[in-house]
What we know:
Order of helices and strands: HH
Number of domains: 1
Number of helices: 2
Helix content: over 70%
Shape: elongated
Amino acid sequence: MAKIDKRFQILLSEDEQILLKNEASRRGISQGELIRMALKNEIVQKSELVRRKALVALTELLD
């Protein structure tokens, strides 16, 4: 696991706080870990989707 050494503060609505708390509890992880996972998943998935679309477009051009 990467060293965690930076602090970041965000504001959440009451509903978002409840959702975060419940999901973290359900998974047996901290709320901070759940936020870090969600951030990584969002960035990686979007980046992967862009790469796949570019590969498909390139493949179609070469056919």
